[in-house]
Amino acid sequence: MIPSLSRSTVCMLLALTAWAGNALYAWGTLDGPLKYWSPAIVAGAMIAYLVIHGRQRYSGAQLLGFAVIVFLVGWFFETLSVLTGFPFGNYHYTELMAPFLGHVPVSVMPAYCVMGYASWSMARILLNRMHGEADAVLRFAAPAVAALLMVVWDLSMDPLRATVEQRWVWLDGGPHFGVPMENYFGWALVTWIMFQAFALFIAPGSPAATRLPAREVRRYWLSVPVIYAAFAVEYVLNPLLFEESGRVAMVEGIELPVGDIYAEVAVLAATSMLPLALLGALFVRRAFSAGEGTGHAASLPVRRGR
After folding, report:
1. Which residues cross the membrane (predicted)?
2. pLDDT digit string (tens) for 184-206?
3. Which residues face 249 on adjacent strands?
4. C-alpha angle with apex 156: 79 to 234, nearest 5 degrees?
5. What is the radius of gyration, based on Cα positions, of the chain?
C-alpha cells in the first residue's frame, strides 16, 4: 500500500505521465502506432490517478458511486442522442471506436469518468472548497462549475476526434469545425446531471480531517490542475509536430487543411484549458503557501472505511 505521505507525489507523477502520453499522441502520425498505443498510457495513468487521489478524500463506496453515476448517466444520454438526436445532436460512432455497449463505445465511459473527476476536483479548487466543507456551494455551485470545465475540454477535443480523426460523425454538421453548437449545450446538461447527482450522493456527513505536512496537501491539490491540463498538452503540440501538410478534413462540405484545424484548436486550448489550470494552481498556492512556509501541518479531509 502507498504510504499516505507519498500519495501526493504519486499523484503528481501520474499526472505528468498523462502529459507524456498525450505528447506522444501528438507526435504520432494520424494512422501510426503512437496514435494507437499512447492512449493506453494516458488512460492507465488517469485511472490510477482517480483511484489514488480519490481514495485519499472519498470512501471506496463514494468513488464507486461516482463511477456508477457517470457510467449510467453518460451511457443513457449517449444512447439517447445516437437514437434521437437529443441532447447532443445527430451523430453516430464509427468502427474506430469499437468495441461497443449497445450504440456507445466502451471507452467513452472511462473517459467521462477520469476527466469528470479532474473537472470536479478543479471546481472544488476554484470555489475554495478544498477543506471539506459540505455546504450549499459544494452541493449546488460545484456541479455547475465542473460541468463548464467539461465543456471547455470538449470545445478542443470534439473537432479533433470527430472532424480530423473521424471517430464519430456529425450527420448535420455544425459551425465549430463540423460540430453543432447543441453538442456543447448537451454536454453542459449531461455533465451537470452527473456532478449534481454525485454532490447529493456524498452530501451526508463530512470527511474526518487528517493532519499532514502543508507541502503534502499542497502537492495533492496541485496535481489536480496538472491532470486537468494533460489533454491540452496534445492540443497545443499538434500544430508544432504535425508534418502531413497535404492532409485535409471535410467541414460542411469544404476541405480544410488538418494543420489549420490543429492550429485553431491549439489557440483555443491555450486560451481556455491552460489558463484555467494555471488559475487553479494559483488558488492552491494561495490557500496553502502560508502553512508550507512556516512548516505547519494542514488538514486534508480523508474518508475512512470502505
Report:
1. 36-52, 64-88, 108-127, 136-153, 184-208, 220-241, 261-284
2. 999 999 999 999 999 999 987 55
3. 256
4. 110
5. 19
